[in-house]
TrEMBL record, chain A:
PANTHER family: ABC TRANSPORTER PERMEASE PROTEIN (PTHR11795:SF447), BRANCHED-CHAIN AMINO ACID TRANSPORT SYSTEM PERMEASE PROTEIN LIVH (PTHR11795). It comes from Petrachloros mirabilis ULC683. GO terms for cellular component: plasma membrane. InterPro entries: ABC_transp_permease, BCAA_transport_permease. It comes from the Bacteria. GO terms for molecular function: transmembrane transporter activity. Belongs to the binding-protein-dependent transport system permease family. LivHM subfamily. GO terms for biological process: amino acid transport. The lineage of its organism: Bacteria, Bacillati, Cyanobacteriota, Cyanophyceae, Synechococcales. It is found in: Cell membrane. This is Branched-chain amino acid ABC transporter permease. It is a multi-pass membrane protein.
Length: 385, 252
């Protein structure tokens, strides 16, 4: 009984992390059809944001600093949502309807973000800030000229190297004056540690099994996020606009729905959810620049197995995959099949986390042979929650 | 800006006032093929104008350009004297163009009620807060009242057409653009739709631009424009429509 309970809760908690990570993807990929390879990196940034917020709260002393996690959740959502808007406005909106290019471009963005957290320092912030100030400032001034459309090409050719050069020179001078104080990377290449608040460090005893509070917190967080998203998509005015644009973009525009704003909002919410997922992942262990890569494949699996565009599919798929992962990895079936030598050997072979993943992927590939559209396939070309 | 053409005069023949919709020297291409050639036309306010012509002469292309779904290579589209040539479709909808496209384009996995509520988006203060559908809509299209919770995609063609018109009316447009509202619809419902459109024009003073093949419906309009090979080749009051013109431009 205890073993079964343990398998159940562990499966649920692995599934909850998967679902939380996949939720944002289910929205971006499922509703907008955009394959965002940088989704995992948004999670990683959410985790780094959590670490920054935690360090800001440390001086406050114990009972108060334990509340950092709630502020971190909000901060992670806002940071990644803003970044998502930048990515959508700056890259993805030019690539709608071209999945291959989107995939490559966002993969490039994911590599940039991985290196970004390794090397970000005050000098780099200064560089980027100055470049944006010069380039977009000049654009804002020049765009008032009536002939701006005509000189746009020249403007870009001249202003990008010019702003970059000025920013680099200023950055280098600052770096050589203040030395390490401004050139030392904030995080560096090593992992950052986020300690769970003290009130999340205990365990809840359930019979002979003990459920860590941190895991319980993630399960509750996942439930809150799922309900929140469900409510938003089905009950709010913006949710209605999103569902309309997903199903018929050009007619929605003809009805007066601002489709570009809808795209931006959808992407912001999907990215923001990745930030929240990153915050949750940070509670479970150390987080490094490559953390996001570990999640991207798993989360795509969840969305594809569940059925693209169906929230309920993602929920069921995440729980099933999480459960299968744990049951195979820990060989929880031993009491049942342990008596049969052939099966015993087979499951023993797969009973460690990485081999369990292999078997789960084999099962997924087999499953998709029979149901290519996932557990909850779409009817026709339409998409809904 | 290009010089004024005589479009304003053709439209003002209809009422003697400024036209609500004014199209001047419009040229539209699909890639390299020239679809609309120097189209000049107008719709006077409070009038019903019908665009006739055989299949493939560019009627739908013209309506799509008015709505902003296609960008003209040259020419101007003005609504109430204001140029809307460079605006996106959603901005045009908010300025008061209600569009009922060919093929209805009901959002399939939204309920009839949600489809109607989306029509409110076109009002300048586009708030979707109102959840009550005004009674006038049901007076025009009583069939919709019983189907509010059905999925839009599950309705029959005639019901979808009525829903599509009702949805456009929810935004209280100044100009209603209808693209073949009777295409593929059973005759009894054609008469209902016809009566509803006529009633809209007389009771609300809304202007209507209609593309139609059904002669009885064409005769309801005040003014016609006939298209051939991407250009306007004839126009006049519909009561002057001769059998010769009808045979030449209607696919009957």
């Amino acid at each position: 009984m205890d073993a079964l309970l343990e398998a159940f809760f562990n499966g649920i908690s692995i599934g909850a992390v998967l679902l939380l990570a996949a939720l944002g993807l289910a929205i971006v990929f499922g509703l907008m059809g955009v394959i965002n390879m940088a989704h995992g990196e948004f999670m990683m940034l959410g985790a780094y944001t959590t670490s920054v917020v935690q360090n800001t709260f440390k001086p406050l002393g114990e009972p108060l600093s334990g509340l950092y996690i709630f502020f971190a959740l909000i901060a992670a959502f806002i940071v990644t949502a803003l970044l998502g808007v930048v990515l959508e406005r700056g890259v993805i909106r030019f690539l709608y309807g071209r999945p291959l290019e989107t995939l490559l471009a966002t993969w490039g963005v994911s590599l940039i973000l991985q290196q970004f957290v390794r090397s970000i320092s005050w000098v780099m912030v200064l560089n980027i800030g100055l470049f944006c100030f010069l380039f977009f400032g000049a654009q804002a001034i020049l765009s008032r000229r009536p002939n701006f459309e005509r000189i746009r090409g020249w403007f870009v050719i001249i202003m990008i190297p010019l702003s970059a050069a000025i920013a680099l020179i200023v950055g280098n001078i600052t770096g050589s004056i203040f030395q390490l104080a401004v050139t030392r990377p904030w995080f560096g290449a090593q992992n950052v540690n986020v300690a769970a608040p003290i009130w999340l460090r205990g365990r809840l005893p359930l019979g002979g099994y003990q459920l860590p509070y941190a895991r319980l917190f993630i399960i509750v967080l996942t439930i809150v996020c799922v309900i929140g998203i469900y409510w938003f998509l089905n009950k709010s005015a913006w949710g209605l606009r999103i569902r309309s644009v997903t199903q018929n973009r050009s007619m929605s525009a003809c009805l007066g729905i601002p489709t570009q704003t809808v795209d931006m909002l959808t992407f912001a919410i999907g990215s923001g959810l990745a930030g929240i997922a990153g915050c949750a992942v940070a509670l479970l262990g150390p987080v490094g620049p490559n953390t996001g890569q570990n999640f991207i494949v798993d989360t795509f699996m969840v969305v594809v197995v569940g059925g693209v565009g169906k929230l309920v599919g993602s929920i069921v798929a995440a729980m099933t995959i999480g459960m299968a992962n744990y049951i195979i990895g820990s060989y929880a079936l031993k009491p049942i099949v342990g008596g049969i030598p052939a099966l015993d050997n087979f499951f023993n072979f797969f009973s460690d986390p990485s081999m369990a993943k292999v078997l789960v992927f084999i099962l997924i590939v087999t499953f998709l042979q029979f149901k290519p559209a996932g557990m909850f396939p779409q009817k026709g070309r339409t998409v809904d929650a | 800006m290009r010089p004024q053409t005589d479009t304003a005069t053709t439209a003002s023949v209809q009422t003697g006032s400024e036209p609500l919709l004014d199209i001047a020297n419009l040229n539209v291409y699909y890639g390299e093929s020239h679809i609309l050639r120097d189209v000049d036309m107008g719709v006077a306010s409070g009038k019903m104008v019908c665009l006739i012509g055989r299949n493939g002469v560019g009627k739908t292309t013209l309506l799509k350009t008015i709505m902003g779904l296609l960008a003209p290579r040259a020419g101007a589209v003005r609504l109430g004297g204001e140029s809307i040539t460079r605006l996106t479709p959603d901005r045009r909808a908010k300025l008061g163009i209600g569009y009922v496209p060919q093929g209805r384009e009901i959002i399939p996995r939204l309920t009839v009620k949600e489809n109607l509520i989306l029509g409110l988006e076109a009002r300048p203060k586009g708030a979707l807060k109102t959840t009550e559908i005004p009674e006038e809509i049901f007076e025009l299209f009583p069939v919709l009242k019983t189907m509010l919770s059905r999925m839009g995609g599950d309705l029959s063609g005639g019901q979808q057409q009525q829903l599509s018109i009702a949805r456009a009316l929810m935004g209280k447009p100044r100009l209603l653009v209808l693209d073949e509202p009777t295409e593929g619809i059973q005759p009894s419902i054609i008469l209902e739709i016809e009566a509803a459109v006529r009633k809209i024009v007389t009771t609300t003073g809304m202007s209507v631009l209609l593309v139609e093949q059904h002669l009885h419906f064409v005769r309801q309009a005040d003014w016609y424009y006939a298209m051939q090979k991407g250009g306007i080749v004839a126009s006049g009051p519909t009561h002057e429509l001769s059998n010769e013109v009808i045979q030449k431009f209607l696919a009957v």
